[in-house]
């Protein structure tokens, strides 16, 4: 995904939304257009790694702090724990609206997951992590989720080689 494409898509999110089914256009979205795209993302190390611990301040905070099984969790019925998250996200309708999918491969602008981590008002519910828990996701982390979805939301690693070692948590393949 070229940076210019991110600008156009971000403009679509800000100026009216580009998604089928999402109730309202997102507002207050973080700009990620200037962040270098990542074409090779390892789901387990990068995306699941964010779900497990996205804190960059030396602390520990992750999506799985709220989105895990067993009952009474996961929050909103979404289990983001290792081994469960991909199957609960990709091509799966949101528990809030069956016409809105958490992840639409190749379409981050239509994916509720990206909107939830990128926009103050994502169209459904609130920005995640809720109340900026653990400091929230940094723009580079949001861009990583965007790029993973844009590249097809694969469960493993894409065939492309890491061209710049980009991983916000310091993982080196």
Explain this structure.
- It comes from Dokdonella fugitiva.
- This is Cytochrome c domain-containing protein.
- This protein has helices at residues 3-14, 43-52, 85-89, 112-118, 139-150; strands spanning 27-29, 119-121.
- It has five helices and two strands.
- Mean pLDDT is 80; it is low at 14-20 and 159-173.
- The chain has one domain (3-150).
- The protein is globular, with a radius of gyration of 15 Å.
- 38% of the residues are buried.
- A two-stranded antiparallel sheet has the order 1-2.
- It has 173 residues and is mainly alpha-helical.
Tally of discrete structural domains: 1
Could you give the distance between the termini? 21 Å
Computed over alpha carbons, the radius of gyration is 15 Å
Shape: globular
Strand content: under 5%
Tell me the number of strands: 2
Number of helical segments? 5
Q: Which H/E pattern describes the elements?
A: HEHHHEH
The assembly state of the depicted protein chains is: single chain
Kindly state the mean pLDDT as a whole number?
Answer: 80
Structural class, from helix and strand content? mainly alpha
Give the helix level as a range of percent.
25-40%
Record the strand order, biggest sheet: 1-2
Briefly summarize what is shown.
This protein has helices spanning 3-14, 43-52, 85-89, 112-118, 139-150, and strands at 27-29, 119-121. With 173 residues, the protein is mostly helical.
